[in-house]
Amino acid sequence: RHGFSGFAAKLTNSQAKKLADLPGVVHVTPDSFYELATTRTWDYLGLSATSPKNLLNDTNMGEEVIIGIVDTGVWPESQVFNDNGMGPVPSQWKGDCESGEMFNSSHCNKKLIGAKYFISAFLAKYGSFNATESLDFISPRDYDGHGTHVATIAGGSVLPNISYKGLAGGTVRGGAPRARIAMYK
């Protein structure tokens, strides 16, 4: 009763103008794409360094916490995994940083303290893995960015003055920016 039909089409500017001028056409909108940045999330949630509850400071921004993530892997070159100002790896850490395709143990540091991949169950079930067809890496390296994004949200380092083409400028950081990350793929 209160809806209307719509569709998406690839049109030239003149075609879009002609379509917009037709009777019964409510609106023609050009498509646009914006990549979102999460530079204001933590302030919005009340988890800034100056929030009244002081949770972030009371927990020392997650220092000595190790966040284990099971996801698509990690892109270790991302600046959110820089270890500037971080002390030694916590003594309770007993994991390792596993080498593999396009990933070696030197990719780990005092921030990204562990990375491991598991493929034996896949090979046992399917017999082989063709990395060329799948685009994935036989290593902890992230092939599509999801694992890297999740790790950034959870414990990415503080990166000031970040924006996407001037939009949503601010500071990017994880919820526990001084925590350590261990990625499992």
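Next protein, fold it too.
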Amino acid sequence: MGVEDKRSRVDEPHVGALNDLARSLRVRDGGVERFVPWFDPDSGGVAAQDLVLMETPGPRTVAVGDLGFSSEDNADPTAAALREARAGAGLARTAYLRCNVVPWPLVDIAGHRRPPLVADLDDARPALQELLSLLPDLELVVAVGAPRSRGSCGCSPQDRRVCPASPGSSGCRTRPRATRGGARRRGRG
């Protein structure tokens, strides 16, 4: 099953509303378009119980344009690490949704990818709040990357669903809280 097949399924019922959100986020105020990846139809979609929040779309996802997905199938090390962590935690692929705290790429004036600034996180907060409103069964938010603190990922600091992690070797693959508080405790697999 290739990326073209995945692209043909972006309006399936469980991801249709999510991908409508992605479409709406592609047009900024003033009508300027920007890239926002599709939500993965192989994920849990709106029925997801767990949300994995990455930082921003990666360069390989951005490079493929309209075929770009926020997906564990992406051909990059971060996607591979998350896929391994999910499988290792016993979390079913259909139980979670992956997306980005800032759903569009960020670049400096030279055109190089850059991390989110506080202003970027503030700009993206309404999009994240809208996403959260589309996930009625959400139980756990795993925030991955630098802006992973509870406040900067758009969740309340008191929200017990939030579990910070890191995609590196000292991060989500080895953080016991990510598995004890998540999939295994709820007996999913």
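About the second fold: The chain has one domain: 3-180.
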